[in-house]
Amino acid sequence: MIPSNEDVFLITQNVLHTMDVLGEVTNMIGGNYKSQVPGPSYLSIPSVTTGQNFQFALKGARVISDTVIASASESINILICERE
User: Which residue range(s) make up the domain with 73?
Assistant: First the structure.
């Protein structure tokens, strides 16, 4: 069965909404983390990536924490980086 344009639109809207929610949750976690570390400290804009088998690279930074939160069907990786 080929999805209709309306189905594709609804799926796309759901994915974009989910990414927006994850970005907002990331902002809340980051703000809490920032309040716990010595200053001065800065936060970048959160980045939400979807898919599988991707690699993360941020020029001039190194990963200091890599946490995986997994459910029965999905997982979320949370990376915290600092400037080198």
Answer: 5-83
Does the predicted model carry a pTM greater than 0.85? no
User: 55-64 pLDDT, tens per residue?
Assistant: 778 889 888 8
| Structural domain total, the chain | 1
Q: Which two tokens stand for residue 22?
A: 């994850």
Task: With residue 67 as reference, give the H or E element that holds it.
Answer: strand 61-70
66 Cβ contact partners less than 8 Å away, ≥ 6 residues apart: 77, 78, 79, 80
Q: By three-state DSSP, how is residue 79 classified?
A: strand
Number of H-type helices and E-type strands within the chain: 1, 2
